[in-house]
Specification:
alpha+beta; 9-stranded antiparallel beta sheet; binds 2-acetamido-2-deoxy-beta-D-glucopyranose
Length: 222
């Protein structure tokens, strides 16, 4: 990979732009990235902690198509009206699991991203369906069974998703929703088919990291 490409990638991550501008200047990036996906693993936005492995299949204006390897996740589900209110208890349950609230009292390293699947409620006062998950690194081996019955281990098969990437410190669900709408529009424009009844948020940074944050929204490829 040449220096200009590396520098552009660094800038695009460092300024946390989505990759739109970059695409305009480097139409061949997707080919390049596909070839270099191994050498640039793990992505900078994983911040040196384990994150699930993927291959970039294609890239277009406002989206990236990724094939994720099979992966293990620890998850919990909650229904509620308010994403902000639902997030805290879900996060705490998963955090307790990795802190030793499991059958082996085993501590497990934090990973990225924190992924949340959302089936939006129909209407402003309707309950949405949330599933929050932490990725379980393959280095854990066989993960211990959760002690909390509302926490589950999920084996996810290889999955192809469409992703958009953006920076900033998102505090409101509407900010995530806006990004999902933008991604949907980019996919529609390209005639790409995706599951429309739910989407995923993926956050890569701890709350105390204020700058250079990396966020994603995902749709499953249909
Ligand atoms: C990518 O680069 C090759 C030459 O290396 C060129 O022939 C091709 O048209 C480029 N593809 C796009 C999509 O611009
Ligand atoms: C992940 O999947 C890719 C392609 O699907 C494969 O080449 C690679 O070996 C896999 N990596 C791991 C660690 O399983």
């Amino acid at each position: 990979m040449d220096k200009a490409v590396l520098l552009s990638m660094f800038i695009s991550f460092a300024t946390s732009n989505d990759l739109l501008k970059f695409d305009a200047h480097s139409p061949n990036l997707s080919v390049q990235r596909q070839q270099d996906v191994k050498s640039e693993w793990p992505p900078k936005f994983c911040n040196g902690i384990d994150c699930p492995m993927y291959t970039v299949l294609s890239k277009g204006k406002g989206y990236e198509e990724r094939l994720y390897n099979a992966s293990m996740w620890v998850s919990t589900r909650l229904k509620g009206v308010d994403f902000e209110a639902a997030s805290r208890p879900m996060f705490m349950k998963l955090f307790k699991y990795i802190s030793g609230n499991n059958e082996k009292k085993q501590k497990i390293a934090m990973t990225a991203p924190v992924k949340t699947r959302i089936i939006p409620g129909q209407g402003p006062a309707c309950e949405s369906d949330f599933i929050m998950s932490f990725f379980v690194s393959p280095s854990v081996g066989q993960p211990p069974a959760p002690a909390d019955a509302s926490v589950t281990l999920d084996h996810v098969k290889p999955t192809t998703i469409y992703v958009s990437q953006f920076g900033g410190y998102l505090t409101k669900f509407d900010q995530w929703r806006e990004e999902a709408v933008k991604l949907g529009a980019a996919l529609d424009k390209n005639g790409l088919k995706y599951s429309q009844d739910h989407f995923f948020l993926a956050g890569y940074d701890a709350p105390f990291r204020l700058f250079n944050r990396h966020n994603e929204v995902w749709f499953l490829k249909a």
